[in-house]
Amino acid sequence: MVTTNAGPATAPPPARAAGRFGLSPQAKGTVALVVTVLIWAAFALSARALSTSSLLPADAALLRFGVPLLVLAPALWRRRRRIAAVRPATALKIACGAGVPFFLAAMYGGSLTSAAFVGSIVPGMVPLFVSALMVAAGKGLPRGTQAVGLALIAVGVVALVWRYVVPLNTQVLAGAGILLVASGLWALYTVGLKEVDLDPVGSIGLLCLPSFAVMALLVLTGVLPTGLASAAGSDIALFLVVQGLGVGLCAGLLYAYAIRSLGAERSSTVGSLSPVAVVLLAVPLLDESPTVAVLVGVPLITAGVALANRRPRPRTRTQPEVPVHA
User: Fold this and answer.
1) Do residues 28 and 261 make contact, with C-beta atoms less than 8 angstroms apart?
2) For position 166, what pLDDT does the model report?
3) If phi over 0 gives left and psi between -120 and 50 gives alpha, with beta otherwise, what is residue 144?
4) CB-based contacts of 99, cutoff 8 Å, min separation 6
């Protein structure tokens, strides 16, 4: 679940004929987007799985932010001046919005709810929060299909949590509230990322460098406990692949490639299927059975995200397109 600074929304480039044994650019973009959606789903599943893992949240965070730094170290060193030139206020939005505060909120919220909640609330509410930030900045109210999409997202989230209000389930409601905080932080990251002029690799470095430093400091000073030394090797391998290589590295690069190949609108629409993928994968992998609330809320959120990310017509001056997963 990594947003990349892929530049302004543009139409997909004309398709070029594929070689005899090769794939066309659009086919490659489609493959990249499908893999990205699966990685986003894996993030939600891992957030839920952490509650039964031998790893602690701090351990998962160290893997999440440390692995991309290790893999991209030479490339990040070449971009060090451009990364250092980012304004502190913008860097803070990115580091808080998708760094340690977001990660811990998503992991803890997931431990109190379900994978379906993580996969729906965190990415689903991002367009609504980003729209609120745009309105606060004087960009104007959303109109047309974007307004309808935002309304569907809100209704879908209410449908998800309503059954836990009567009778009252404080644990699930608290978890849902924490996931809403995580989604709001991700929206802040989305807005901050629009303000930087970095390629996807530089954007990953701008996020992971301060985040890993903060997590290492919290662990070394004993503020957050760690069980990495005694954790099961299978758990370390799982989170290293899913969080470090998958979410931290591959999702950002693949999503940027998909946007360049397919266009931002098509990528955002297909990316909105991530909550559906989470629900389907949670059944065999986590033994979660979708409730009626999930079967009603997830499709509403998915449809809302797809509509909220539709680009306005060129003659209108509505708010910018909101990425599904910044």
Assistant:
1) yes
2) 83
3) left
4) 65, 207, 210, 211, 214
